Amino acid sequence: MKVWTRDLQTLFPHIRGSTPRPNIHAAAHIYDFLLLFGPVLSWWYFPFEHLIGVLQKINTNDHTGGEMEATIMKTMACTANIHCWLRHPDCPDAIHVLKDLFDKCFVPVSRPDALNEFVERKGTHRAYVAHDGDNLSPFKTHPGNSTIIYRPLPSKPPVAGQIQSIENLHNHDGQNTGICLHVHRHNLLSKALYDPFLQFPHFNAKTYSTTLRAAEDIIGLDDIVAHAAQYNYSHGRSVMVSLSRQ
């Protein structure tokens, strides 16, 4: 560690005249910290840095002077005190009953429930869906994530299309049973227009018309072949490049 600290001044001459940073000094005591506090994962500062990032993204509506910060700190302190009180052996039973009622009324969407007592309910449509490592979105949400290569039918060859909406499917009990995508297919290129990518069969690109069919294809996630990049160029032509990782 001493050699590393000394070489820092060689590699970065501008720090020679500055006071050594606390983290540089702390690096010399990592062995001691491991013995005292255990694995680094249990005492590093990443969770605090993440919290700072969350706080920085809060819309303050230009409130200055510490009003917003004080409100956040008071709320967090009250929440921490309530959690501590509920875990205390002297907490009245009536408070525990109220806690159970509160949990039943306000169930976090991401909270797992082994008894399936609470069912996660979502709206009829969604802004995006993850598929094969990509985020796919309707055109109105994110145009760049709306172009896909898909099979309109299992026996049909893949075509290019644009996602118009993503729908959540539900059963009679309101439980989510799946997802379907409403897609408008790109029209095939007119025979009067030339596809310059035909001469490159090993390049996974094809030119379509920029226009879309009025008819809508309703497909599932399994019908998607790949996310695609779209580039519009001359004479109403759009080249589609498959972004498949396979």
Structure description:
Keywords: Membrane, Transmembrane, Transmembrane helix. This protein has 246 residues and is an alpha+beta fold. The chain has three domains: 41 residues, no CATH class; 58 residues, no CATH class; 118 residues. 28% of the residues lie in helices and 26% in strands. The protein is built from six helices and ten strands. The chain is extended and about 75 Å long.
What is the alpha-carbon Rg in Å? 28 Å
Distance between the termini: 45 Å
**Helix-residue proportion:** 25-40%
Overall domain count: 3
How many beta strands in the DSSP annotation?
10
Largest sheet, if any? Answer: 8 strands, antiparallel
Estimate the mean pLDDT confidence.
Answer: 81
Indicate the proportion of strand residues.
25-35%
Elements, N to C (H/E): HHHHHHEEEEEEEEEE
Q: Can you tell me the residue ranges where pLDDT is under 50 for at least 5 consecutive residues? A: 115-120
Tally the helices: what do you get?
A: 6
Helix- and strand-based class? alpha+beta
Task: Please tell me what the overall shape is.
Answer: extended
Keywords: Membrane, Transmembrane, Transmembrane helix
Transmembrane segments: 26-46
Summary tags:
alpha+beta, 28% helix, transmembrane, 246 residues, membrane, extended, 3 domains, eight-stranded antiparallel beta sheet, 10 strands
